[in-house]
């Protein structure tokens, strides 16, 4: 295995793979984890938000969807 790493093409391929993997992992942004169900009032929406707090997620603010519905987005940290 040590002899194969002495070849310039193999060495540059390994280096390019490491750089590409680092770029993918380093620039990845957290995705939206979950969109909550709709709630009929803002009070019910606000009351449901604490159930979505964890070490990995945090709920966003409640926002209006349609004339009488509210929901929030749960984001990953």
Entry keywords:
77 residues; alpha+beta; three-stranded antiparallel β-sheet; two-stranded antiparallel sheet; 5 strands; rod-shaped
Report the C-alpha radius of gyration, rounded.
23 Å
Order of strands across the main sheet: 1-5-2
* Mean pLDDT reading: 82
Structural class: alpha+beta
Distance between the termini: 41 Å
Count of the separate structural domains: 2
Per DSSP, what share of the residues sits in E-state strands of 2 or more residues? 15-25%
Largest sheet: 3 strands, antiparallel
Low-confidence stretches: none
Instruction: Report the strand count.
Output: 5
Helix content: 25-40%
Number of helices: 2
Shape: rod-shaped
Secondary-structure element pattern, one letter each: HEHEEEE
What do you see in this structure?
The chain is an alpha+beta fold. It has two domains: 1-29; 31-77. The protein contains two helices and five strands. The longest helix has 19 residues, at 8-26.
Short description:
The protein is of the alpha+beta class.
Secondary-structure blueprint of this entry?
Elements: H1 8-26, E1 32-35, H2 42-48, E2 57-59, E3 63-65, E4 69-71, E5 73-76
